């Protein structure tokens, strides 16, 4: 049966889980239908879950389609953090009519640079040699702006725990899939839906210069640039980022209702 509520789909990033959105979505209007799926293989290991055969953005986009179909949701606004944004772009490339809006939350439509691909390869080798826990000890800290190191310590610990619980096969598979994903800036240029960019000015994963190259690509776009924010603005600046998302969502659903 079709679900007629305005739907928001929150997609977590690499080595994260749906739990990253718990606080962020608490104050969402009750008339919105909220989905926070957990990607296969991520988060705490499920002994009963089948092994993941394909970690590609395209495969995860098909997983998202299944989740929407199961919920009876024909169209949603996608809010994708980091890798979640890559998945949302892969979905929008194949099923554009099902995307009412897209928020790239510290994410990018560009493919990895050669330098970043090389770094992914080094990370894969590190995980294979030293394990996931050791990897997370060095991977999580740079996601936060330096100025937030002390205040964000509980959230850093949360991300480290989520990451440490991720199976090694998923960490390696995810790194490979992100490294090999194609450039999808054409999706932004052809977008028939509004796009919101949330950009941390101190984001080492999606540098400000890369974000600036993309914000003017969609026919309709808005952007929020945040000082003293790295790659996890939903923790570092929850009020500002939540307001930006809800204003974006309200504008889209308000226009649809006219």
TrEMBL record:
**Source taxonomy lineage?**
Bacteria, Pseudomonadati, Bacteroidota, Cytophagia, Cytophagales
Entry GO terms, CC: membrane
Protein's name according to its UniProt entry: Alpha/beta hydrolase fold
* Keyword Protein biosynthesis set for record: no
Domain (AB hydrolase-1) ranges: 6-106
MF terms (GO), sorted A to Z? hydrolase activity
Offer one Pfam family short name for this entry.
Abhydrolase_1
Q: Which domain of life is it from?
A: Bacteria
Respond yes or no to whether keyword Hydrolase is given for this record.
yes
